Amino acid sequence: MSHNPIISALTAGKAQFGLFCCSHSVQVAEALGDSGFQFLIFDLEHCPQSLPHLHAQLAALHGSGIGAIVRATGLDQAAFKHYLDLGVHAIMVPSVSSADEARQALRFMRYPPLGVRGVGGSVRVTRYGRDKGYLQRAEEETCLIVQIETVAGLERLDEICSVEGVRAVFFGPHDLAASMGHLGQPGHPDVANAILGGIRSARARGLGAGILASEADCGPYLEAGANLVCAGSDIGLLVSSADGLAARLANRR
């Protein structure tokens, strides 16, 4: 069994469920760590996040057993080094549209001679130098998730999936809908069908397949083989719950 809970989850044969963590609240991350989800995705692409906040959130999850994924801002060698040294279990790279981009991400995540990741000693992932076996184990524990969000990415999905070291593909329905000419319609039949085909293709190649889909909408994706299902976000749950409560109370005036 892998030390990495995301890799273990992807090979477990069961669907894993999680949330995007869009706030930079340590308390929210700690509370969600015991909620029963299998993973959290810390979104550095769209949300007001920082490395010190991320460090504190990861520390708050210590002992929970939940997997921590970071959605990066893009292909950034220095940022990848920071994320890995902080101990994230997987890096998800947005809008990957070619095999070369996937290979570049892996180079940033791997130590020489396979890559260009710098070697840090007193960092969180090595328990500040106490884990003497980490460098030898790092390659098998590296987890890259590529996000398919464009027509170009869909068209090159087979070659992207063929890159050794890619563990999973995660389909972004909102950006994919925009790329397909259906801006604001992530549930459009053309978008849904494209994602369903992509999930089946990734799973047939032995890779994990992820999707952002609500509880009401995730059924077909699960049937197609999706095993990394993000059901929403912390901010989304907060807004929905708060708006619903306020509306119900307004009716009691």
What does the model show?
By secondary structure, the protein is α/β, with parallel strands linked by helices. The protein has helices spanning 5-10, 26-33, 51-60, 77-86, 99-109, 134-141, 151-155, 157-161, 173-179, 189-204, 219-224, 234-250, and strands at 16-21, 39-43, 67-71, 90-93, 144-148, 166-171, 208-212, 228-233. Strands 1-2-3-4-5-6-7-8 form an eight-stranded parallel beta barrel, surrounded by five helices. Helix 2 (26-33) runs parallel beside helix 3 (51-60). 38% of the residues are buried.
Topology summary:
Elements (H helix, E strand, L loop, with lengths): L4 H6 L5 E6 L4 H8 L5 E5 L7 H10 L6 E5 L5 H10 L3 E4 L5 H11 L24 H8 L2 E5 L2 H5 L1 H5 L4 E6 L1 H7 L9 H16 L3 E5 L6 H6 L3 E6 H17 L3
Parallel strand pairs: 1-2, 1-8, 2-3, 3-4, 4-5, 5-6, 6-7, 7-8
Helix pairs in contact: 2-3
